[in-house]
């Protein structure tokens, strides 16, 4: 199976972002394959967003809900999507994860407001 399909078809993706000192921080996220990229959603103020702004290099792997990798690690480049581009991806994530996805994203919007979420696109190197 090709890496994009393997990762995008899974339920969770381990995303490792890198601090300024080079140390990695891994976080499991919901994932969606969107063409030739992977997209995930997170709080706009999350540490991973700050780290991606400073260093777009990431490593990704299929994982379980706790972030335990279940496959090979792939290097990639992350990009914070502009709001217009993010809306379509967030709608697709809600669809993929069904009622749980819808409830989670509505709850996030109520807590953080319309600008409180960010969509991140990852292209594999």
Automatic annotation (TrEMBL):
Keywords: Oxidoreductase
InterPro entries the UniProt entry points to: F420H2_bilvrd_red/Heme_oxyg (IPR052019), PPOX_F420-dep_Rv2061_put (IPR019965), Pyridox_Oxase_N (IPR011576), Split_barrel_FMN-bd (IPR012349)
The Pyridoxamine 5'-phosphate oxidase N-terminal domain, residue ranges: 17-98
Single Gene Ontology MF annotation: oxidoreductase activity, acting on the CH-CH group of donors
One Pfam family recorded for the sequence: PNPOx_N
Coiled coil residues, start to end: none
PANTHER family in the record: HEME OXYGENASE HI_0854-RELATED, PYRIDOXAMINE 5'-PHOSPHATE OXIDASE FAMILY PROTEIN
Protein name as annotated: Pyridoxamine 5'-phosphate oxidase N-terminal domain-containing protein
Example of a GO cellular component annotation carried by this entry: cytosol
Gene3D superfamilies assigned: Electron Transport, Fmn-binding Protein, Chain A
């Amino acid at each position: 199976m090709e890496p994009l399909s393997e990762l995008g078809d899974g339920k969770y993706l381990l995303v490792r972002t890198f601090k300024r000192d080079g140390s990695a921080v891994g976080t499991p996220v919901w994932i969606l394959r969107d063409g030739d990229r992977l997209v995930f959603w997170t709080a706009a103020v999350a540490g991973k967003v700050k780290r991606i702004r400073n260093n777009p290099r990431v490593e990704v792997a299929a994982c379980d809900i706790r972030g335990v990798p279940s496959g090979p690690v792939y290097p990639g480049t992350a990009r914070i999507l502009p709001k217009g581009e993010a809306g379509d991806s967030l709608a697709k994530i809600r669809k993929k994860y069904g009622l749980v996805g819808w409830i989670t994203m509505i709850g996030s919007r109520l807590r953080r407001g319309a600008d409180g979420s960010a969509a991140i696109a990852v292209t594999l190197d």
